[in-house]
């Protein structure tokens, strides 16, 4: 019970973000309440810490931190998150880093944690199929790149995944493209594919995820058999 609010049971703590979100001081009853709901309080503390870091215009998050932040921000659409972050950062004396090259790219392209979980599952299936074929992700990119232009279109990704044995619907392929295509140009570069589906991806893998090592790139002629397929539901890349 707070002296200023006789019927209230709210407790507060003063925390320092640069010091690991440690509590410097707290109101009466805060410690008792914290001990009574330890697991819940720990998650709330972590969620609050990541939200404060986001407001503080920080760019880099571990996979666990990014998942917690995504869950906290999922009531807001992706565009609103991006607009808020960039507008706040513009007011600060901070290096204007290209957010496309940071974990924030995933936060601005993933509607909710369920969408991230779906893509994580796709990545696991892709890696398993590649392992069975003795291929690396670099091999897969070369095999999917039907016209050999160094990037993957939606049709090439759709056809390549079907050839690999990971058939997705056109809608699911669109979701993958939205998540992976950091610069939103309608094409997937090799680095973007490796970043999203690679075993060392900092965005999709958690500590519990298997880190099976895939073979090094050993592309052979028979690997390059994936054909581009374009269902009507797939978006066409922007005209040059």
Automatic annotation (TrEMBL):
The keyword Cell inner membrane does not apply. Gene3D superfamilies: EF-hand. PROSITE patterns: EF_HAND_1 (PS00018), EF_HAND_2 (PS50222). InterPro entries: EF-hand-dom_pair, EF_Hand_1_Ca_BS, EF_hand_dom. Keywords: Calcium. GO terms for molecular function: calcium ion binding. This is EF-hand domain-containing protein. Residues 132-167, 168-203 form the EF-hand domain. The keyword ATP-binding does not apply. It holds the Pfam family EF-hand_7.
